[in-house]
Amino acid sequence: MDMLDATVTATAHSPQAADDAALARAAAGGDTRAYERLYRRHAPRLYALLWRLCGGNAARAEDALQETFIQVWRRLPQFRFESALGTWLHRVAVNTALMEVRASAGFEALERDEDGMDALAEMPAATPCRSTGLDLERALETLPPRARAVLVLHDIEGWKHQEIAEELQMAVGSSKAQLHRARCLLRARLGEAP
Amino acid sequence: MNTHDNDHDHDDLAARLRRLPAERVPPAVAWQRIAAQLRQAPPQLPPPLAAVPASVQYRRRHWPRGIAAAAVVALVLAGGGRWWATHERPVAVAQASPLQRQADVLAAEYGQAIAAIPPETVPAELAPALHELDSSAGSIRSAIAQSPDAGFLLGQLRRTYALRLELTRQGLAAAAFPT
Q1: SS3 B145
Q2: Last residue of a domain, one of A53, A75, A103
Q3: Is residue A194 part of a domain?
Q4: pLDDT at A104 over 80
Q5: Chain B residue with minimal CA distance to A154?
Q6: Radius of gyration, CA atoms only, chain A
Q7: Shared domain check, A116 and A95
Q8: Does A138 touch chain B (CB under 8 A)?
Q9: How many CB atoms lie within 10 A of CB A14?
Q10: pTM, to two decimals
Q11: Closest residue of chain A to B18, computed from CA coordinates
């Protein structure tokens, strides 16, 4: 999907989107103060997403956040305002984070077992009752990168399998399988019955 | 929220995931770093479109560097191109970026270290893992060529090379001193 052609028209005409557009036009002209306002507005939402996609690795999440806002800054004059700026930022952020996930897939598989169902199941589990948000965040961080990416994008960000498959360059069936695997791993990590 | 899959057993889990905090405040230094780079990289004006028909202008797509890099990474991964050892070829670019030059220096340094280890002494069972690491390093270098500002990729490349070298050394030691 071309990130400049992202089409989420439902939010493109909201008051915040209109304000975003005004700030983006000013930033496209080189106004860094306007761009900082956009950053303050959108960075917390993006950072939460990047934090999860990067498995709680703060350095990677910050790198991806920085790269996202620099990429968008450079491309602002080409943004056609047919979609909400927030949608575009979201797509650039996901693409940036997953670029690293894709690039690092080889050695991460060696560093942490990609097929770690057994290992995860053997790890000390949280109290097998209702887990807290903190438990969930920590459990998410233990998932293999690809499974975690699919789970975050599908279950938290609301992406469809088709979109995830395109982003991760995998088959739709693989996306569904990774989601199932991620949920099972997560339940095992939380000490819940699958 | 998408619920097309039939995994209804996980509805409760999905609901809890959706209730996780939607925001996390980045460290203050993050904006300072971005601002420092903005001053060095003003927004890029689009290319002149005067000679292009309106219908074509509307359809024109400007691929961000991240997408282009991702495509290259995917292509290299799909092709399984092995680039290291005696067959290493420089990434074809008109002019190397500073990041690429750093990557070249890194590759040369680690290449020398690897070359000092005779290939025939490395255990055969390590070959798949080393091949995977070679492919990853090649993918990262290709991504650097496409995204010359993605500084984090250099750290990724360094870690991949270091792991490759360490694995080779460990394999060599295991072969020399079998238990």
Answers
A1: helix
A2: A103
A3: no
A4: no
A5: B2
A6: 18
A7: no
A8: no
A9: 12
A10: 0.58
A11: A156
